[in-house]
Input
Amino acid sequence: DASARSEAISASDVTFLCLPDDAAKEAVTLCKSDSTVIIDCSTAHRTNPDWAYGFSELSAEHEAKIKSSKRIANPGCHASGAIAILYPLIEHGILDSAYPFAIHSLTGYSGGGKKMIADYEAEGRDEKFSSPCQYALTASHKHLPEIKSVCSLDFAPAFNPIVSDFYSGMCVCVPIQMRLAKEKLSVEEMHSLYTEHYAGSKIISVAPLCDKGTPDGLIFSNALSGKDSMQIIVSGNEYTMNIYALFCNLG
Output
């Protein structure tokens, strides 16, 4: 009942919207209170300049807008990792906004919602669910607009999302060709860039620099499953670097 929903939303201190996009937009119109904070978990308002983008660790400006706003858009899962990597590169002038970014992202199947969870957890499921699955083959994934907007990119990145047979966890990787950079950094300098950008964050940490990227040269996408933290990993060489964001798609 729309009037009952309007009354409940308007009486709340904070309302979280866990709805499809169109329903989320409708719910916002039902709010009649100037004091109610609405946090929208859908993609409906993530590129709306009147809404705060809910990723306070990106900059002091993001944090300030979140604190003062009554309308906050919760970031998407793939987008959280991609933006955590891309934003410092653009903000500090290392790469141009027209750089041809590519994003590789591996996620647990819980990111696909109820139907995908049921498919993966069904008794006697098809063997195909045991192998990694490429999706969003049209190159128009719903997280691309927010990545482009929040990072002030001229073009949407090429995006390669893959779902695999584990419940939750995510690893996003952005490869960087240093020959195309505005400012060419060593691996050590790139590591320092991220360390300084996220200094003081309680959520985002930067892994110690390691010759193999990690001590054993491996990154398991479910390593932070069930947590709300994120780890940035820098690896590579003076020509090509891989920047990883390791976190939980549900966290």
Summary: The chain is about 30% helix and 20% strand. The mean pLDDT is 96. Helices lie at 2-11, 21-29, 60-68, 77-91, 113-121, 144-150, 187-197. The first strand starts at residue 14 and ends at 17.
